[in-house]
Design goal:
The protein is α+β, with helices and mostly antiparallel strands. It folds into two domains: 4-83 and 108-179, no CATH class; 198-345, no CATH class. The chain has 14 helices and eight strands. It has helices at 4-17, 33-44, 58-62, 110-129, 145-151, 198-202, 220-225, 248-252, 267-271, 275-282, 292-303, 306-309, 315-328, 333-345, and strands spanning 22-27, 73-80, 98-100, 134-137, 156-157, 163-164, 172-179, 264-266. The strands form three sheets. It has a four-stranded antiparallel sheet, with helices on both faces. The longest helix is centred in the middle third of the chain and has 20 residues, at 110-129. It starts with a helix and ends with a helix.
């Protein structure tokens, strides 16, 4: 077997060959105390919002070695998702009324595709490292992945809470391979967002506090994707047509490439979804994180947003769609009444 330095170099080369945009190594031990302190601060402030699961498994979140017997290293990986032209995400058809979805959710479910890539990478590593045990983690286990990424030298935590990777920005998805390989750890990243508050200014709801801690009670990504309960009426006018997630803070970040057209769904189509059409539209995609009722709620509130109200040619279609939704989904009557009022006010 190669020595630790040679093996680490091979791990990084193979990771890049597998398509990962950045790779670093961290020790599989307790995370720096500052990571625990910031998580505790975030929880104590009540910022957890609909992400109640973040209160569970504190030991695992702060110590990746607890995820795998004999763990010695964590291979931290960043996958860059599309920043080029996106446009509508509904095949060749032109949407009658396009509503944006988060860029990361435009394609197949990244949990499955990236985990498959991690397993393929581990199979290749066994060819040079011999037999070892590893566990691929893709946003589905209690692990402080951003703190690990900082420890592995991938980047720093921006004021919007996202990992900023030098040369790539924040349009990355993170995954990790906790393994029994004895690899050479990288030095922690030491960058910072100096003198820039564009993401804080761009947030429609004031969810960003400028210190990297995000109030998920206000964050549109959390509200539209994670919150099954009704969204507070005080936030309805601030949702800016978001259908699934929000990229406002990332679009404003100077470390990212200039914003392109976001991927979209047809708002009128979504308003007409039933269980069958929701299933067909979300199967195998990250979009499936939000259920039918959540999509309908988000679509209804999008109808009352300025970007949609300005589309005067579609107002009659929207009214008709909202009336049909009201008959099929009575619990959403308050959101529908508000959206109809906004359309009437023009």
């Amino acid at each position: 077997m190669a020595d630790a330095h040679e093996l680490t170099a091979k791990v990084k080369a193979m990771s890049r060959e597998a398509g990962f945009a950045a790779v670093g190594v961290a020790r599989a031990g307790p995370l720096p105390h500052i990571a625990d302190e910031r998580l505790d601060l975030w929880l104590d402030r009540g910022f957890v919002g609909p992400l109640a699961y973040m209160r569970r498994h504190r030991e695992l979140r702060s110590n990746p070695a607890a995820l795998l017997d004999g763990a010695r290293s964590v291979i931290c990986l960043a996958w860059a998702y599309a920043q080029g032209p996106s446009g509508a995400d509904n095949g060749d058809a032109t949407p009658r009324l396009a509503a944006p979805i988060a860029r990361y959710a435009a394609g197949r479910d990244y949990h499955k595709t990236l985990k498959a890539r991690c397993h393929q990478l581990m199979d290749r590593l066994r060819e040079v490292a011999g037999d070892f045990t590893g566990r691929a983690c893709v946003d589905s286990v209690p692990l402080g992945e951003r703190a690990l990424a900082v420890s592995a030298g991938l980047g720093w935590i921006g004021r919007n809470g996202c990992l900023i990777v030098p040369g790539l920005g924040s349009h990355v998805l993170l995954c990790e391979i906790v393994c029994t390989l004895d690899l050479v750890p990288d030095a922690p990243a030491d960058g910072a967002c100096e003198g820039c508050g564009r993401c804080v200014e761009a947030c429609p709801t004031g969810a960003l506090k400028g210190d990297g801690l995000v109030d998920c009670r206000l964050c549109l990504s959390s509200l539209t994707i994670e919150q099954e309960a009704p969204i507070s009426p005080s936030l309805w006018p601030k949702m800016h047509g978001c259908l699934f997630g929000c990229d406002a803070c990332q679009d404003a970040c100077p470390h990212n490439r200039p914003a392109s057209c976001p991927p979209t769904l047809d708002l009128l189509d979504v308003l007409g979804w039933d269980e069958s059409s929701w299933d067909a539209a979300t199967r195998g995609r990250a979009l499936r994180r939000a259920g039918l009722d959540m999509f309908l709620r988000n679509a209804i509130l999008a109808c009352g947003s300025p970007p949609v109200r300005e589309r005067r040619a579609q107002r009659d279609e929207l009214r008709g769609a909202l009336q049909r939704t009201a008959r099929a989904h009575p619990p959403l009557h308050a959101e529908i009444d508000w959206a109809m009022e906004q359309l009437e006010a023009g």
